[in-house]
Each structure stands twice: as C-alpha cells, then as structure tokens.
Amino acid sequence: MKINILQQDLLPGLQAVSRSCGVKSSLPVLANILLQAENDKLKLSATNLEIGVIKEINAQVIEEGELTVPAKTLVDVVSSLSGAEITLEASGEQLKISTPHFNALLNGISATEFPSIPLSSDKSITVSGKDVHISLPQVSFAAASDEGRPILTGILTEIKNDNLELVATDGFRLAHKKTTLSGTNGANFKALIPRRTFEELIRLVSEEIGSKEVDQMLEVSTSENQNQIIFKVGNTKLSSRLIEGNFPAWEKIIPTTMVSSAVIDRTSLLKAVKLAAVFAKSDTANIVKLELKDGKLRLTSEAKELGGQESDIEAKTEGIGLLIAFNSKFLIDALQNSNADDVQIEFSGNLSPALIRPVGEEGLEYVVMPVRLS
After folding, report:
1. Superfamily for the 2-113 domain
2. What stretch of H or E contains 223?
3. Cβ pair 79, 11 in contact under 8 A
4. Average pLDDT over residues 116-132
5. Which of 2, 195, 203, 207 is the most buried (most CB within 10 A)?
6. Cβ neighbours of residue 26 under 8 Å, at least 6 residues apart?
7. Residue 227 has pLDDT above 90, yes or no
8. Order of all β-strands in the sheet with 173-180
9. pLDDT of res. 283
10. Start-end ranges of CATH 3.10.150.10 in the chain?
11. Alpha helices, DSSP H only, in the chain?
C-alpha cells in the first residue's frame, strides 16, 4: 500500500473512526484502525465489536493494500503534521509516514486479524439527517448508562407510517419523541438500539452535516441476520449490534390523570433548578422540592453542610396546590434538551409521576418519577 493524502483530509476521518476503537479490549487489533487503499479511496475502519465505523476519503492511491495500525499513535502523529501532504506506505506489518521534512515507522498488525464489520442488506430506509440530528439528543439522555439492566440502555426506535418514534427510560424517568419523517416510502422498522450507538451517530451526523444548508440523507438498514443496525450518512457507515429483549410497556408509564398543572418559562425554570441543585448534593439524592400554589412555583433545596435556598417563579397554574420532590438532574436534563419558550408540567399527585411537555414542540414529552420525602 502506498498513498498520498492531505493532512486536512486525513485527520478528521481518523478522529471520527478512532472513537470506536476497543482500546481496553484483550484483542490488540481492536485498538487499531484498518487502512485500506483502493480505487483512489482510503477506507478507514474501527470497531470495538459492538460498534463499527467505516469512513471513505479521497486519496491518491499509488499502490493498493491494507494494514492496521494503532489508532492513538496515528492520530497523534497526523494531527502534528499540520498542512502537509502525507505519504503512507506499508511494508510488511509496518507503516511508513512521511512528508518532505518528516519520517516515521509505525508498527502495525496484519489486516487479516481485523474482524469484519457487518454491512447492510439491500433493503434500507432513507430519512432526513437533520430530523434525526434534532430528535435523538432530546431522548437519548434518558436511557440507562448502567449495564445492570441491558434493555434500559437501549432506545426503542420505530419508523411507521412516515413517523419516527423514540422512547428511552432508565426506570426513573422517560423521554418520548414522535416526529414526522419524509422519504421513508411507507417502510416500517422497529428495533432496540444502544444508547452509545446513538451518541456516536449524533457525532457522525454533526460532522457530516456541519454548516451545510443542504440536508444530508441518512440510510437505515439491518444486516441479513437482523441483529445489526447500519446507518450510512455521506461517506460514513456506522454498524452496531441491536439489543435483544422486550422493552417495558412504556405507554402505561405516561400519566393519564392530572390534579394540577403549571405553564412556566423554560429558561427561568432551568436557571432556578440549576441554582437549587447547588444545594441538592448527592447525599440527599439531589432532591429539589417544588411547591405549587397561588400562581407561583417555589423551589427549595438544602444540604446540612451547605445550607439551603428557595426561589419563586411565576407560573400559570391550575388545580390544587401540592408539594413534590424530584432529582434535580432529571429536571435539568428534560429542560435543557428542549428549545421551547415555555414548558407545561402536569402533576398527578405528590407521589405520582409528573409529565413535562415543551409548549409548541409537538410529540415531545418527559415523565419524571418523584422522590419520596421522609
């Protein structure tokens, strides 16, 4: 293998795929990036056996070939060669990296030891990259990060009748988003996709879309054995395993009755909750108390070693007055992942879940479980 490529073309691709390397794996080759040169393209691949990323970039291919090399070292070297045209030349299991003023040899591992990354079947759904880029962050944060219950680390994803529906829950809160898509051609799709996969997809779509005004379309498909999901945006493919199992009956979690409600300025509420969180330290489960009465929402919090605080926010209230407590982090996550001016909070009682709906953002809702006060 021998290629010439500009540093500014190579570096972003290396950085994008290197995030998916299995750096803590017992298999050394998973810490490497697979370089494959053919047809005036350099294909970069990385995988941790759960997520795999493949990215193609233009290059002057003098001699075709392939080799895997350590991702971190390669990224560190290339990022230091600013503005230079770089020659990459493989000889045996070594990669020579050179510019007019620099030469280095990097020990690699044969490409035959690199695991294959599952690719899609012929059937795929094409959706708007911007739609997905907006919707995913509004939901993905609510999925569990603890692997103790693998099902809850996934995001239920369904495309049906030109609608995209996303649901995530960690058992203490739930996020639900339903939005209309264009370009699905009536195709249906349903899968439980890992939170980490969506977090990486958000980054990749951001990098592909950048500041472009033209929307990048996102292709979604499954592997032939249906246990892998594959996304393709621009010149990048992301492959991931799917989570097997039954997702909780989330529809039953959403409250259907209401005893009180409040419409509040989202920014004001977010600032007040963040301020209350300063006094709601982890030794008190990050507890923030909300008291609803007389057209106001009062937030109070306290910690023995710090003291306490209270703040009042104007609100349009309906129903009975009540006192309820929440984990401040769950409120902050819900409030800062919306762009609405106002939010409506519906209360079913001081020991029942609350429903948060950003006003004007159709199809987006959050459910937060309360904390029992002793």
Report:
1. DNA Polymerase III, subunit A, domain 2 (3.10.150.10)
2. none
3. yes
4. 80
5. 195
6. none
7. no
8. 189-194, 154-160, 163-169, 173-180, 364-368, 354-358, 342-347, 260-265, 316-319
9. 62
10. 2-113, 124-250, 255-368
11. 7-18, 71-80, 129-135, 137-140, 195-209, 266-278, 328-336
Give the fold, CATH level 3, of 255-368: DNA Polymerase III; Chain A, domain 2 (3.10.150)
> Phi/psi class of residue 367: alpha, beta or left (left: φ > 0; alpha: ψ in -120 to 50)?
beta
Q: How many helices (H) and strands (E) does the chain have?
A: 7, 26
Which tokens belong to 232?
């393709």
**Maximum Cα interatomic distance, the chain, rounded to a whole number of Å:** 77
Question: What percent of the chain clears pLDDT 90, i.e. is strictly above it?
Answer: 74
Query: Any residues with CB less than 8 A from the CB of 54 and at least 6 apart, and which?
Result: 17, 43, 44, 45, 117, 236, 237, 239
pLDDT band (50, 70, 90) for residue 121:
low
Q: What tokens does 92 get?
A: 């045996």
The stretch 111-137 carries a mean pLDDT of: 85
pLDDT at 212 over 70: no
pLDDT band at 122 (very low <50, low <70, confident <90, very high): low
The C-alpha atoms of residue 183 and residue 162 are separated, in whole angstroms, by 8
Strand, coil or helix: 68: strand
Q: Please state which CATH number belongs to domain 124-250.
A: 3.10.150.10
Whole-number pLDDT of residue 282: 64
C-alpha to C-alpha distance for 299 and 291, rounded to whole angstroms: 7
